[in-house]
Amino acid sequence: MRNVLERAMIRKEDEWIETNDLSFSAILSEEDTDEETLQTAIEKEERRKIIAALAKENGDATKAASSLGIGKSSFYAKRSKHNIP
């Protein structure tokens, strides 16, 4: 709800937020409206974050794990799960 209110405040040009400014469907992106399950979305994002962390840290798994706030063994398990070399 807080995010809905914040978006309404950003998009609103005058001082008052009205009920039609609080449309939940208006804040959904096209990606959010497909039939993807929550678990699938979480796994895709987790994979994307791991790849990005590895790229940022030039392939250094220890630094990538640290930047993601997880332990090295968890990082390696997630890499294996997502088939990330």
Concise description?
With 85 residues, the chain is mostly helical. The protein has 4 helices and no strands. The longest helix is centred in the middle third of the chain and has 19 residues.
Question: Please, could you describe this protein's structure?
Answer:
It contains four helices and no strands. It has 85 residues and is mainly alpha-helical. The protein has two domains: 1-34, no CATH class; 36-85, Arc Repressor Mutant, subunit A. Helix 2 (38-56) packs across helix 3 and helix 3 packs across helix 4 (72-81). The longest helix has 19 residues, at 38-56. The protein is elongated and about 50 Å long. It starts with a helix and ends with a helix.
Question: What's the SSE blueprint?
Answer:
Elements: H1 2-11, H2 38-56, H3 61-68, H4 72-81
Q: Kindly provide the name of the CATH class of the largest domain.
A: Mainly Alpha
**CATH topology description of the largest domain:** Arc Repressor Mutant, subunit A
**How many strand segments?**
0
CATH architecture grouping of the largest domain: Orthogonal Bundle
For the residues shown, what is the average pLDDT? Answer: 81
